[in-house]
Amino acid sequence: MNNDNSIRMLAEWEPQEAIVMALPHEDTDWAYMLDEVHSCYKEMARAIVESGEKLILLVKDKVQATELLKDLPMDNILMISMPTNDTWTRDYGVISIDTPDGLKAIDFGFNGWGLKFASCHDNLANLRLRDMGLIPSDAYRNLRGYICEGGSLETDGQGTLLTTTECLCSPNRNGGLSKEKVEQVLSRELGFTRYLWLDHGYLAGDDTDSHIDTLARICPNDTIVFVGCRDIDDEHFEALLNMRMQLESFTTADGRPYRLLELPMADAMYDEDGERLPATYANYLVLNDRILLPTYNQPDNDRAATEIMRLAYPGYQIVGIDCSALVRQHGSLHCSTMQIPQGLLYL
Asked: Which fold has domain 8-341?
């Protein structure tokens, strides 16, 4: 594919048909807290199917999954038996692009966020969906020789990519490519024409090398929401201040500053070993008519984040989902979901 503006990665707020999730099971790192995380997944599933979208759920055990979701509208849920290493479908699900030949499903390689974790099953998920006939063969595009995760890509659907240098230039993904080399690949395959590279910003406990969807997100109407830190004693203060300054320097395609909306930093949360967890309000999911916003049992912060999202997405319903359990494995709501646009799959 050539970068001739005839292809483009879709924005998350474009019309969707389904969300892909993978249910935690006893052979994953969730084994010690399955009931807690299953409760979170059930609430996500409920919000998705009540929105009218379909839920494609990758499961190890259909009987167990059916029992968990038995009071939900099962007509809107497609369960697919498939082995998985983990639950973070954002990072191994297909990337959807629009082309002159219709919608295409891009299958990049997934190597466990730079060879940190096992990924042998997750890396095959899209191939299995194609072989099952869910992804049409003529829509499936194999780019598995290039490592790229959905959580590292934020776009307005009009050719702009917002991303982080630390992740896309990681030596453990594609051998440490330069920004210029990364741009060559992503312009050719996803149609990007503008790049907004963030060189600052991180969250303690994040295993992804600073995925953009933990830090800053592109919204409609030339808006960017981002995580801020107002506590000078917090370890994130300097890095997130520098990130904000860089965001303030970015301009839209027609040269105007972006409208920036600051999300609160969640109060520090820790795992059983005392390691700080990457709780972030930026890790939300856009559905057709609502936003699923992660919350963390922090009433003031949860409320403030909800109000910011109302400003960023006018006309959308903001639905809070308690992700206190989900963040225990160092991810959150957006990480555990991948949207599928209308008309891509055989459903």
From this structure: L-arginine/glycine Amidinotransferase; Chain A (3.75.10)
